[in-house]
Amino acid sequence: MHRIAPDDRCLTIVIAAFNEAEAxxxxxxxIAKALSLAEAEGLEARVLYVDDGSRDAxxxxxxxxxxNDPRVALLRLSRNFGKEAALTxxxxxxxxxxxxxxxxxxxxxxxxxxxxxxxWREGFDDVxxxxxxxxxxxxxxRATAHGFYRLIGSLSKTPVPRDxxxxxxxxxxxLAALRQLRERHRFMKGLFGWVGxxxxxxxxxxxxRVAGRSKFNFWALWNFALEGITSFSTAPLRMATYIGxxxxxxxxxxxxxxxxxxxxxxxPVAGWPTMMSVILFLGGVQLxxxxxxxxxxxxxxxESKQRPLYFVDSWRPASGVSSGQVPDSTGAxxxxxxxxAGIEVG
Length: 346
Description:
With 346 residues, the protein is an alpha/beta fold. It is built from ten helices and nine strands. The chain has two domains: 266 residues, Spore Coat Polysaccharide Biosynthesis Protein SpsA, Chain A (Alpha-Beta Complex); 71 residues. Helices cover 46% and strands 18% of the residues. The radius of gyration is 25 Å and the shape is elongated.
């Protein structure tokens, strides 16, 4: 394992927020305390808030944080691009040291930061929090999350740790590797696993939201799960092929049996109800297969347009957080330079 270089003794807490005006005032004091703990560990600690096009008072509250604490940096996107893009925008701005990722709802405890830093100092590149308990969530959401992580783990060749979200610390070389992955459909949990390097889990108990409501309803979670599976596995396409072959074999066998009965015993061919059942079944199988193909084709279409991942409306660096260069629109990046992610328009 590698050791932390003297130039990398900088830590940035990255938080993507969308309409979190209720939760942020309760979270910021905990963040300030976590920054003090990191500074006590000999690190140059800062926090970077990314406003993902919020429509409430989130940006005004964040500006108040920055006015009262010089360790706060702010990045505002031109509109809501989604959590994955907002998180990418924040990580693109971390040019020195490690990044510690937190959710804006306060469910992941920033008080565990010293444990993450300790593992980083031992040489781990991806120190992620693994949930052993999820407070404030219904049984259905817990059950579906439990099943999703095990499903994608079995379908994908990319290691995706079970019951693990974005709550993690990434080393400088993990961040540099991550900046090279510029796909438009971003499933960050899979991308974290794809870059590899030395990884370790820290078990923790996830708390309930400090305030407000979750932006992820079951429809959003379903689309998120579909995004993850199609981004890191072609197993659904292979399954569609196998189902098609099995259906064809069953249909061929059944058709042969009908013909044989008619020739040997003169039995009449099954009538309209049987025919309609078979047609509807085969039509349903074909539509499901076409839908799977469409999901993958749609992702190819989005990638072919090569649009920037996001646009920056406002960037307010804090002391110690490098502002970097203004990215262009090519969507490329370099592991040892500034990540090119979008266009700064304000």
